[in-house]
Structure formats: structure tokens, C-alpha cells
Amino acid sequence: MRLVAENLSCERGGRRVFSDLALTLEAGRALAVTGPNGVGKSSLLRVLAGLVQPASGEVRVEDGDPELSAGEHCHYYGHLDALKPALTVLENLAFWTAFLAPGRTGAQWQPMTPIEALEALGIDHAGDLPAAYLSAGQRRRLALARLLVVARPVWLLDEPTSALDAASEARLGQLMSAHLAAGGMIVAATHQKMPLADVGTLRLEAPA
Amino acid sequence: MTDLLALGPHAGFIVACYLVTLGVIGALFAWILADGARLRARLSAMEAQGVTRRSARARKSNAGEAGS
Amino acid sequence: MSGWMGALFLRELRLSLRVGGGALIGVLFFLAVITVIPFGVGPDLNLLALIGPAVLWIGALLATLLGLDRLFQADRDDGSLDLMLMSGRPLEVLVLVKCLAHWAGTGLPLVLAAPVLSIFLNLEPLAIGAVALTLLAGTPALTLIGAIGAALTVSLRRGGLLLAVLVVPFSIPVLIFGVSASGAAVTEPTPFMTPFLLLCALTLISAVVGPVAAAMALRFSSD
Amino acid sequence: MAILDLANPTRFLALSARLLPWLFAACVVAFAAGLYMTFFVAPDDYQQGATVKIMYLHVPAAWLAMMCYSVMAVSSLGTLIWKHPLADVSAKAAAPIGAAFTLISLITGSLWGKPMWGTYWVWDARLTSVLVLFIMYLGLIALWRTIEDPIRAGKAAAVLTLVGAINLPIIKFSVDWWNTLHQPASVIRMDGPTIHPTILWPLLVMALAFTLLFFVMHLMAMRNEILRRRLRTMQLQAASARVGVATSQAAE
């Protein structure tokens, strides 16, 4: 399975954000997208996720699930946590578990149950508390838990390590390595170094 | 007891009024009691988990100093 | 297949009933509108009986429309809408489920409150039954049509009022048949069934047009 | 020295625990006396016959609705001006009780109206202003329910209550004026019988019984509210500290 994007260009508010960008990502590999602020890292992730129509070019997942679009193979972990403060932590996670359609139901893609996901991220003690009572770091970890409970091969992470403390960052590193080992792919827009071994980098330059 | 029966032609309305009043006040009273019981139960469950209030923890640490 | 729809329906309903949810606010608004009108029109019971159904219907229309602006905006603000667009679930069915949950939280209480409020408007039992029945058949249409406006104004900060302005023209047929059906139940010559069946037809049409148009608007709204 | 330092919630809980049984007993006695006098002592009215007995519920309930709103208004002053920590607890506890009494007053008024005017609802000046008061109560309860943080909700509700308190006389006056402006022939004054001692006494006793009932329920609701806030702070604590950490602190 491969994530392929060819001569992608994207416009936001009439401004050309990036143009004729191409990338291919093999299974089991991770890609860090770097570059100064405003160069379009987040826009690239949103284009890969299918949330934004590219001005030109196309994104496809080769030998993935033919009926699904490229976006439906991806988990999108953006700046917003998609959590409802009025619902408890478990209710939030249980909803996404039931709601999101899995990207591929291959054998090696065993998703975790909500409880396991919370334990993997160290917030299982707050399971029955309303999400409103969580700290920023805990909310980010709860958003990360969504990636574990539904099996999708491609992870699109926007600033994954932001608002995470050292322990959580280490946990994130382990989860990412496990995902890659299972044949998954990760595209992360980030400034800091990724808690991963070998990571390809794609540097976006501001258009000359 | 005969006076009780002499409620006149509109007895139904009088009884209805008293029933409504009893109903509304009864429901409110029951809700307050139930709410209190539910809160006390969740509070004791919290305490059982070891989550203590600041003042309780302060008292405990004072007791600790006083004791040692 | 029905797992995700059930999960979405329960989530929306639970959110609307919890603190900060908008479920019962619709009924309070309805009560406020119905109470205010006699102060303008005057306490003459016969006049109130005459305009009763219209007052109840317009109150229900306003209560539904003004409760709809958070239908998609709440999800957009916290990022849930992006995930819903990527969820691999048919967006039209998703919008339909959200509308049903919103109707169950806001529309249904209106239908249940209408008979109580019609006492203030001195409606006789037959008219009360007719208004309740027509509201039951008509309020889903108002929610489904309003969802189009909600989807169109999802990215606007103060979309609520604009939503009502955009959508009121589409809800006029529902209002006309709703009021004439509830009025027909009282005045003998005009039949009740014809306007009522047309009202049901309008609801079924809006059950198709609403979600499709709203889904399209949502796809364009994400930037 | 503050007359009774009720500001401290723990002391308030202890004091109210001791006071409640006595208040409850007094309330039961007052109701027993009131009901006995209503049914056995008070004569029927020459016009309305026995339906006047509804007045013994309707009028006290309306008085209580007003009294409850004034308790909330004073509590709102306590929240905004004197910064009394228990003031918003008292206001939030009183709102549902006030709404309940207003509802009783509305329903009994409407049931009283049916035999007298043949219709359940008449836009009589007093009934109308009680209806407006009912909507204000529901608005306050809704405001309490939508703002999550109790302190901010307390301040917002206090402002709304005070605005309401200022507007109540204005509403009362304008409704009376509106009523006389559209003076439909069918409405007769709601006063009913001239207050004759044998009718006045049961009314006062019933009013006392209702007032005692209000204080009993108000104290109980305030105790619940204090427990609810304690639960909330403990939940916030539970979320921030892992349970393990909390116990180790406790063990120090």
C-alpha cells in the first residue's frame, strides 16, 4: 500500500499556497513536513485528508480499499480536538469508535477498545469524568486515542507533539512505531524532532 | 365528617386543585431528596477512590505533624 | 450499518439535553412568543381563538429556525465536522440523522407543549387536536429545511438570524398548509385531510431535498 | 461579629442539619391546622359556594411565588455586592421552588376560573402577571443550566434576577393598565369575598404553612447545591491528578 500525490497545488483565499507538489509514501514509512509558518503544512494535510479540494493534481492510495476515497483511508489529527465538553471521556471515544468507518479491515489492523486506548495514553482514570474537566494535554491525548480505536492505515498529524509532556511524547513515539510496524503510514507537520527513528522529510519553501 | 362531602357542584375542581398542589410539591420534594441522595452517593464514591478535598488533606497533614 | 447512525443520534440527543444543550430552550421560546402575542392583540378570547392556530404555528416556526444555527456550527467549532466529512459515512444520511435528533430534542417538545399553550389562546379541544397533529407532521419539515440554512451559514460567525432569513421563504408552504389544516378542523366546510396530506407530502419532500442540499453546502464550506 | 457566620458552607451544613427537623415539624403542624380550618371552620362563600376553598391554595401559592423571587433578589444582591459565598447557592436553590409555587398558583387559578367564567384561562391582570413571573423563573433556571461554571452562572443569574425584580412592578402596572384598556365585559374582579375573619384565619395559617414548606425545601436544596459544588471540585481534582498521586499526597 502506498500514498501517492502528484503535482498537487492548493489555493486558500485566492493565494497560491503551494504548487506542483509530489510525494509518495511507502507502507511502514513516516514523512515529516517542515517549513516556516504559513507555508501550507496544515493545508497539505487537509488536502491529503480530502477536506480541501486541491486546485490541481490528485491524491490516491494505491492498492488500498478501492471503494474508499483517499481521505477515508486517513485519520486526521488537527489542532482542534473534536471533543464535546458535556460528554464524558468514554462517551466521546465510544462515539468515534462507533461512528468512523474503518479504512481497512486487514488482520494486522486490530483496533483497540476505548478502555485500552485510554490506558495506552494514560488517561483511563478520567474515563467517567466530563471532558470539560480535562487539561489541554489530556484533551490532546484523548484526541490521539481516536486514532487507536478505528483502524485506518494513514495518520495525518498536525503538530502531534504540541501540548504533550515528555511522558506522553514517549508514549506517542511508541504508538507511532507500532503503527508503522503494522504497515501504516504517517505524515506529520511538525517543528520539533519526531520521536521516531528514520523519518523522511519534505521541506516546503515559500513560493519565490 | 359530613362537611367534607358538602363541596357543592364544583367539588371536582376543588379536589383537582388540592391534588395538583400535592402533586407539584410532592414531585419537587421527592426530586430534592433524590438529588441529595445521588450527590451523597457520588461524593462517597469519590472519597472511596481516595480523592480528598483540600481541607480534608490539610487536616490530615496537620494531624500527621501533630502526631509525629 | 445502523450502528453509526444510532451512535450519532444518541450523541446529538444527549448533547442537546445536557447542560448547555439547546433542547428545552426551544419550548421556553415558544412559551414566551405565545404569551407575548395577546399583549399585543388584546385579551379578547374570541379573537385569540380565531388566530390561535396561526400564532402556534408561527411560534413553532420561529422556535425551530432560531434553534438550528448550532446544528453544524457547534461541530465545526470543535473540529468534529472535519472528522464527519472524512468519516466515510454518506453525508446526506448523516445530515438526516442530525436533523431527526435535533427535531426529537427541539421539535417534539414543541408539539407536546402546543396543547398546553393553546389553553392561553382559548382554543377548543378539536382545534387543539388539529394543531398538535399538524405540528407533529409539519415541524420535521421546518427542521429539515432549516438544516439547509444551517449548512450554508456554518462558517459565518453570526449565522443564526441569516439562517432564518434564508430559510423562511422555503417554509411558507409548510406554514400555509399547517395553519389551513388546523383551521379547517374547526370551520366545517373546508376539509381537513387535503391540506394535512399536502403538509405530509411537504415533509417527505424536504426529507430528501434538505439533507442533499445541506450535504452539498457542507462539502463546500470546509476551507 | 457576624450574627451567624453562615458564610462558611461546612458550618451552614451543620446548622441547617440541626434546624431542618424542627422546621419540618412546624410545617406539618401548620398544614394540619390550615387544612382543618379550611375544610371545617371556614364557611362557604355566598356567591361561589365551596369553590372558595381553592383560594386557600391559590392565594398562598401566589404570595410564595412573590416571596421566593424576593429571596432570590436579595441573594442576587448578596452575590454581586456583598460577595456572600452562599448567596448564589441560595438563589439557584430557590429558583425551582419559586417556579413550582408559581405553577401551582397558575393551575389553581385556572381551575378556579373554569367554574366561575366557564373557561380555563382568562387574561386577568393578576393571572397574567403571575404567568410572566413563571416565564422569568423558567428563564432563570435555563440560564443556570446553560452556563457550566457555577461562579459565572451565579453572577449572570444574579444580574438577570435583579433586572427582573426592577421590572416586576413595571410589568404589574402595565398589565393592569393593559387589562383595563381592553376591558372585555366577561371579566369580573378576582377579589372574591370580602375578607371575613373566619375566612382570613385559614388563609393566614395556610400562608404560614406554605412559608415553612418553602424554608424547608430551600434549605434542603441549598445543601444539595453545596454538595454538587464539592463534587465538581473533586471531579476536577480527580481529572488533574492521577488517582495514585492523590493518595500519595494524602499519605504524606
Report what the structure shows.
Chain A has 208 residues and is of the alpha/beta class. In chain A, 27% of the residues lie in helices and 25% in strands. Chain A is built from five helices and eight strands. Chain A has a five-stranded parallel beta sheet, with helices on both faces. A three-stranded antiparallel beta sheet of chain A has the order 2-1-4, covered by helices on one side. The radius of gyration of chain A is 17 Å and the shape is globular. The radius of gyration of chain B is 25 Å and the shape is rod-shaped. Chain B starts with a helix and ends with a helix. Chain B has helices at residues 2-5, 11-48, 54-67. The longest helix of chain D is centred in the last third of the chain and has 44 residues, at 197-240. The interface between B and D is large, with 38 and 44 residues.
Distance between the termini of chain A: 34 Å
By CATH's scheme, which homologous superfamily of chain A applies?
Answer: P-loop containing nucleotide triphosphate hydrolases
Largest interface: B-D, 38 and 44 residues
How is the main sheet of chain D built?
none
| Whole-number total of structural domains of chain D | 1
Q: What is the average of the pLDDT values of chain A?
A: 86
User: What integer is the average pLDDT of chain D?
Assistant: 82
Count of discrete domains of chain A: 1
Give the strand content of chain D.
under 5%
Taken in chain order, the helices and strands of chain D follow as HHHHHHH
- Give the beta-strand count of chain D: 0
Structural class of chain A: alpha/beta
Q: What is the overall silhouette of chain A?
A: globular
Strand order of the largest sheet of chain A: 5-6-7-3-8
Shape verdict of chain D: globular
| Oligomer category | heterotetramer
Give the helix/strand layout.
The complex is a heterotetramer of chains A (208), B (68), C (223) and D (252).
Chain B: H1 2-5, H2 11-48, H3 54-67
Chain C: H1 2-17, H2 23-41, H3 45-66, H4 70-78, H5 80-85, H6 91-118, H7 125-152, H8 159-184, H9 193-221
Helix pairs in contact in C: 1-6, 2-3, 2-6, 3-6, 3-7, 3-8, 6-7, 6-9, 7-8, 7-9, 8-9
Chain D: H1 9-41, H2 55-80, H3 87-117, H4 125-146, H5 150-181, H6 197-240, H7 243-251
Helix pairs in contact in D: 1-6, 2-3, 2-5, 2-6, 3-4, 3-5, 3-6, 4-5
